[in-house]
Amino acid sequence: MQTWLVLALDRSVIIGGDTEIGVLDAFLIVDGVRFTLGAIGEGEPTLFREVLRLRHALGVSERQIAVTTGLSRSTVSEYLRRAAVIGITWPVPDGLDDAELERRLFTPPTFDEKPARPLPDWSHVHKELKRPAVTLLLLWEEYRAEHSDGYGYSRFCELRWSSGVRGERCC
Questions:
Q1: DSSP code for 56
Q2: Percentage helix, strand, coil, to 5, in the chain?
Q3: Is residue 99 situated within a structural domain?
Q4: Among 38, 75, 130, 149, which is disulfide-ready with 71 (CB 3.0 to 4.6 Å)?
Q5: Model confidence over 8-51: pLDDT tens digits?
Q6: Alpha-helical segments (H) within 5-135
Q7: pTM across the whole model
Q8: Do 73 and 153 have their domain in common?
Q9: 18 and 70 share one domain
């Protein structure tokens, strides 16, 4: 099996070499088949597909895939882990082109903007604290009875102070 790393620079091709010219295209040739190194080319298979094919169709070890493709073993392992998380094996589904495969494998999960836990009603807490014999601990216990997944007491106190509601100290 022959493996070549090819860097295309300004319409010329340099194999090996330590030039500092900007790389326009980088690809790998494995047994005469050209694979891009991450950037999506016109109709060229990517290394993501080759890693999946070698692992699932041929049963090649991660270490041997790394040697064959020129990737590090940890990168091969990461590609396979990401593919397993989203449920992709070989053969890759027909409707999944290289751009979509790369997007699914490497797009970070969306960040949910809403708070993970329900916030207490601070105006109610402030009003209740003015009553005699009502403590912040008592109000927190009521809050937790209503919201079992709510904040713990110390975080409840921190949030109260950061909410701008002032009154007696909580702890």
A1: I
A2: 40, 15, 45
A3: yes
A4: 75
A5: 443 334 444 444 434 444 555 655 565 655 443 444 457 888 88
A6: 47-52, 62-69, 73-86, 98-106, 122-129
A7: 0.43
A8: no
A9: yes
